[in-house]
Here is the input.
Amino acid sequence: MLRRLLLLSSTPLLFASAAAAQPCQDPLALQLRQDALPANPAGQQNVAVIAGICPGDKAAAVFDIGVLPKPLEVLEGGILMAGPLGSQPMTVRMEIYDGVTFLPNGQAVMGPLVYQDLFANSFTPNALNLVNITGFGTTVTSDKLVVAFTIVTNPNEVFPGLGCTFGYTANFASDTQLPPSSPCATPSFRNLIFDPGQGGWWDITQFTIGGTPWCGVAFNGSWIIRACVKLPTGANSGTGDDVQLATAAGTTDPSALAKTANAGDFLQLGMQSAGGTFVAGFLLMDFYATAGPVPIGFAPGFRLANTPVVLGPGNMLPTFAQGFPIPPGLEGITVMVQGAVLDLGAQNGLYGTTDAHVILIQ
Here is the structure.
């Protein structure tokens, strides 16, 4: 039970390498995150230890996935544990929920529980700890994915033997760099807390202890929780013609159908006809709310629902032919890109399209 309004404590973490903290073992998987840390943290990162999380308490992140085709398979989940050097490992369980709704008072009503660890995992402080559930067949079909973690044991007590009374020196962490008692800067309905003594799950922005808001005093920012998901086979497929799309944002495989990006990242686009069937084509682009719904294509083989932005025509190139920086203010927007050719040599005698790629701006 969250017994005290323990103040935030800032902790600088040093990641030895990006590879050591890199989620998503599948290069075609989509990494979901809402914290401000890089996708693959490296070097020093400043975070805040949430000292008042006690055994039995849970933290959860809500990811908008409405725009993505379903069912969406969950491959991995992860959370950052933080504390001073020499902190001891904690035991933690992961849960996955298919959706969540909220009552007016901020209490969260979870959707179906689709995965739960049978045994607790030993999690290392000052590391992004991952649980790989590839092959378990864990899928979600709603417009929100919820990834939750429960503290089972934590030996890092401020005063050994006094348990939760005075909190813990190492614990779950948030991405805030704000000092204690700063105004709450946590996004609503994205970060959850489970307190068994106060009726279960709550949106952190409306959660209180003894009438005192928790956000701003004992929490701020966002949980550092990640998820790796994979689109269903055949999702966003085009006409099957000899035309291929490549998109780059961050370190994701250019052939991946879904990827994430942040403001300031350079989005690169390119298309080719690997077999030499076509020599010129168009790039089509459209924008959707990541919260959904899934776009319904305006014609067979097209995945874009609206009148798209057209880039081209241009010659096919095996390397990236178009690119631009992602401007600020597009968080929560998903860009969909698809390549097309107008050619009598297409299978339908009129046009051919690539698979569509989606870029979630976080």
